[in-house]
Amino acid sequence: MNKKEELEKLRKRMLADSSLPLKKGTTRLVFGVGNPNTKILCVGEGPGYWEDIKGEPFVGNAGKLLDSLLSSIKLSRNEVYITNVVHHRPPQNRDPLPEEIEAYRPYLDKILEIINPKVIVTLGRFSMGKFIPNARITSIHGKPHIVQFNSRKLTVIPMFHPAAALRGNEVMRQIREDFQKLPEILKEAAKPEVSQMELI
Ligand code: URA
Question: Rounded to whole angstroms, how far apart are CA atoms 78 and 172?
Fold first, then answer.
């Protein structure tokens, strides 16, 4: 099976999983979108209103900003893969609860295993917390971190959530600046051995 087929199989398993805690009351499963053979996996928080309707991550205002950030480094959403820590919309767009994140974790981990990216771009604190626990986004945004994840080394670059950037000019300036670092980080991460010191 190729990666696309593996992801489709996983999506079907998820669709059939009635134990997922946020499923009730939602319109669609929001699994993920993009190129399964990419080196870059972007992980957001959870679907909002438009994502729930369309079944695709980051299609509202935050998504438009994400598209423009990607396009500023000559990438499109079809060249990376985009998913979330939870794949159903939390009621009234509230933050996902720890037990909800935990319930969706095996699926996110499997997506990660299938795609096997070089770089993970975390969008916001919930996905950052998965790879870099107890960190403060204000201190570490835009800085690559080498993390050990399920016996592999990954480069994680924590970014502010695009929705936060839409709420404030300073965060917008920082997220734009942080995205400019991504091509160089990717180049380094794609080398066989990366030294974190070299990257900072
Ligand atoms: N915000 C997210 O974190 N994910 C989405 O898919 C949309 C908005």
Answer: 23
Whole-number Å distance, alpha carbon 83 to ligand 1 midpoint, is 8
Give residue 100 CA to ligand 1 midpoint distance, Å.
16
Query: Which residues, 6+ apart, have CB-to-CB distance to 91 below 8 Å?
Result: 22, 25
Identify the band that residue 150 occupies on the pLDDT scale cut at 50, 70 and 90.
confident
In ligand 1, which atom is closest to the CA atom of 45?
A: 3
Helix (H, G, I), strand (E, B) or coil at 71: helix
Task: Name all residues whose Cβ lies below 6 A of ligand 1.
Answer: 44-48, 51, 57-58, 62-63, 84, 123-124, 163
Structure confidence at residue 191 (pLDDT): 84
Task: Identify the helix (H) or strand (E) that includes residue 137.
Answer: helix 137-140
What pLDDT shows up at residue 127? 97
- Report in angstroms the alpha-carbon separations of 169 from 68, 70, 78, 114, 176: 16, 18, 28, 36, 11
Kindly report the pTM of this predicted structure. Answer: 0.94
Position in ligand 1 atom list of the atom nearest CA 82: 6
* Structure confidence at residue 174 (pLDDT): 98
Classify strands 40-44 and 81-84 as parallel, antiparallel or unpaired: parallel
For ligand 1, the distance from its centroid to the CA atom of residue 57, given in whole angstroms, is 6
Q: Report, in angstroms and rounded to the nearest whole number, the Rg of the chain calculated over CA atoms.
A: 16
